[in-house]
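FW: tagging you since you asked about this chain on Friday. Here's the raw sequence from the shared folder, copied in full. Didn't touch anything.
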Amino acid sequence: MITEVFETAPAFTAGLDRGDEILAIGTTTADLRNVSDIIATEGTSGVTNALGPSTVGLSRTLRVQSPGGTPRIVTATKADYSLSPLSPRYGARIIDDGGRRVGYLNLRTFISSADQQLRDAMANFRAQGITHVIVDFRYNGGGLVSTAHLLGDLLGGNRAATDVLAVETFRPEKASNNETKRFVAQPQSISPVRIAFIGTGATASASELVINGLIPFYGTNLALIGSNTFGKPVGQIAIDRSACDDRLRVVAFSTRNGAGSDNYYDGLAGAVQASCRATDDPTRPLGDPQEAMTRQALDFLAGRSCTAIAASAQGALSASAGRLTMLTPENPTVAQREVPGLF
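HL: got it, structure written out here
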């Protein structure tokens, strides 16, 4: 199943979109192989192999089917492209839920080009008087800590300048590198009354930093919607060596919130005070009020009851059991690590 298609990518131009099911893969129509046969003989890694390496100019022919539609043949050619962190279609919108106006924000990944898009989205929410917000991180594997800090500031219009969003904590011998990030009000900052964060086992790192940073201030007015998150309360530093071209990235610090907690190695389901279980529904567009996760987030914001997400000792590993999970290459690129399921 295709969960998302980026508007600047060749797949979108070829007519693919969320909800399409890939039935067969080949280099041409003459050698199409059914996905069910590929998985039966090679496992899910066979699907990755069939889609081929990330080589510009490489083409693949697919037999796909949209929900309720008939199978069709699509050919797409791989290319380099710039990713828009917020979709121009559904990245930021206002949902009318029975008279309650809710701000919906879907951030694909934490990269620097997201900064102005986030400011613009929040400026619109602020102008519209939005106080109930859904932040959709379901496929967001993380990225820049600086962009996570900015999003925290944009959601922290009602925070004092002394309030702590995050503390980067190194081992005792490197404690001089510890850094405290306090909320800094931005011209576009909003002051949510209730926030629903949509997450899955693919939600990690910078995404979890934002959620964890807001937990101490909201109590039961903040909820995790969907399933347990990945569980990565740590970050990396980069070390360059003059003798070689490589950059060594070292997991060197943990990220704590203002209450001193970085206790979500097993995912955030055990750290939030409120959660609602929901399943991703790729047959509906992201941000659609009837899509299962978005619908559950709206229900939480409206004060309706739900079934809590079970905090698991195995974190994201067991959170994916029996659920749709992202295909990931054995040796993912940087982009594929931060945007799970990217091909």
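FW: The first helix runs from residue 10 to 13.
HL: agreed, and The longest strand covers residues 247-256.
FW: great, closing this out.
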